[in-house]
Amino acid sequence: SRYQRRVRGSSGINADTGGKICLFILPKLGLSKVTYDEEEQITMTNLTILNVILRIMGDTHEKKLTTYLLIIQVLCSAVAFTIRYQLVYLFYDEQSIVL
Predict the structure, then answer these.
(1) pLDDT of residue 39
(2) Average of per-residue pLDDT across 73-96
(3) Could you say which of 15, 34, 60, 84 would form a disulfide bridge with 44 (CB–CB 3.0 to 4.6 Å)?
(4) Residue pair 36/23 in contact by the 8 Å Cβ criterion
C-alpha cells in the first residue's frame, strides 16, 4: 500500500505508526496535501496553523488572515484558561485555593 512506503523527512527517518496515521488522516480532512512519487518519497505541505487556515479558507487577503489568526488565538486562550481553572479543583482543596 502507498502508506507503507518509506517516509523521508529532513532527517531521513522512517515514519512510525503515528506518522502513517497522519499521512492517511490529514489529506482526508483537507488539512494537508500529500503527494507520492516513483522514488517512494512522500511530500506534504507545511503543517503550520497559518497554512492550515489558508487550506481551509482559501486564498485570502493578509488583513483578513490576521483577523482569523487573532480570533483563533483568543478562542484557544479562553478554552485553555477555562480548562486550567476548572482542573485546579481536582488537585487542591477549595480552602487552599486563593483566587
Answers:
(1) 74
(2) 84
(3) 34
(4) no
